């Protein structure tokens, strides 16, 4: 049988130039100023799928379109659904990028660009994996379906509506995208040279709180001390949400949280992890968090409360003695399996209402939220993926959880009843969502090879 390596080696440069072209499209999904570019990214991708003779559609939604493509059904073999996203986070703050975010630049074997790892660079390895398979073997050993969305970073409303709808062009949605297993490459390896299969994701629920006090900014000498200050109130309210011991104080918050099993604690402790290296890499002189848990446990198994943005009052040079009329905050909680976002929302709202001082109006907004999840490792698909990764990365993967969230994995489980393989090719320090996002080109090529081998390995599993 012809082997993939020749094709992969011969096409190395073209895979990279296609990746760079893909990364040059500024598909910032959260900002309507980029709507035309987002559309262009969807069309670019659809063109690539059509180039492989996949049956391809750009599906309109209430938001950015979905790109859907499928190869023919192979009788007696499983069907794989590859999910990914072509939208990217805003590139700000622009001044902190060493090279512009939408002009891919290679330094030290890594490509720097917004979307390099999250998720354009990772997702496209599966398109090239299919290409390499088709070009070396003529046809795929199983059916591959691609469902790539443009709103992952902005809440995924379009995909959620599509998944919960009944029909798409007279085809029942569930039938259309039905598969035996989902594959997603939108997370990280355990470290450089150490690929991983991720079996747990945290969930998330976002909040925004706006406080307003007096009907205008006031002189803090004339009025200070006699009327509630929204900035003071906000600080006090937020401070009450977390105890000195790093425990979140929302009533009932931990009620449904399971304690880690001794077995899992031992497995995590056995992973190679250095607190000192982590501290120096992050430029901090201490790591911190909930008492009684290791750093990896805090990241993967425990829920969090983190403020993302905070605003009020005067931010300019020098002093301005103002009592601001308004204050606001955006924050979120990462959730672990069994925690119910709706229950937490209700409890938090009640708590904040109780903490809000007289003379302040509070507006409270919460996202729909997604629960955390743990995937079963006891599946022939997991073994198949491990064998494919072994061929692509020349090392067997370790099994890890992650602190990040990919809410749609819950929908695939609840709507289609199927499991997901989370096969991340990135690194935790790839600066996703930050300036200077990057992706190792060696890992990009290893990802393509793994993807190519994955089709073979999954086709051997009894569907
Ligand atoms: N790809 C990330 C999720 C991720 C990152 C998983 C790193 C594992 C490791 C995804 O694009 C993302 O950013 N998700 C958001 C959640 C979403 C609801 C906005 C997140 O985790 O903040
Ligand atoms: Mn992502
Ligand atoms: Mn992301």
Question: What is the topology?
Answer:
Layout: H1 4-10, H2 12-23, H3 35-51, E1 55-59, E2 66-70, E3 79-85, E4 105-107, E5 110-112, H4 120-137, E6 143-149, H5 157-164, E7 167-168, E8 171-172, H6 173-176, E9 181-184, E10 196-201, E11 203-212, E12 218-219, H7 220-223, H8 230-239, H9 262-270, H10 275-282, H11 295-300, E13 306-312, E14 322-323, E15 326-335, H12 341-355, E16 361-366, E17 373-374, H13 380-393, E18 398-401, H14 408-416, E19 420-422, E20 438-440, H15 441-459
Parallel strand pairs: 3-6, 3-9, 9-19, 10-18
Antiparallel strand pairs: 1-2, 2-6, 4-5, 5-20, 7-8, 10-17, 11-15, 11-16, 12-14, 13-15
Helix pairs in contact: 2-4, 4-15, 13-15
Q: Can you describe this structure?
A:
With 463 residues, this protein is an alpha+beta fold. It has two domains: 4-201 and 372-459, Aminopeptidase (3-Layer(aba) Sandwich); 203-257 and 303-366, Alpha-Beta Plaits (2-Layer Sandwich), CATH 3.30.70.360. It has 15 helices and 20 strands. Strand 1 and strand 2 form a beta hairpin. Helix 13 (380-393) runs antiparallel to helix 15 (441-459). The longest helix has 19 residues, at 441-459. The protein starts with a helix and ends with a helix. The model has no long low-confidence stretch (mean pLDDT 96). The structure holds ligand BES and manganese (II) ion (MN) (2 copies). One manganese (II) ion binds next to loops. Residues 118-119, 152-153, 186-188, 204, 402, 404-407, 432 line the site of ligand BES.
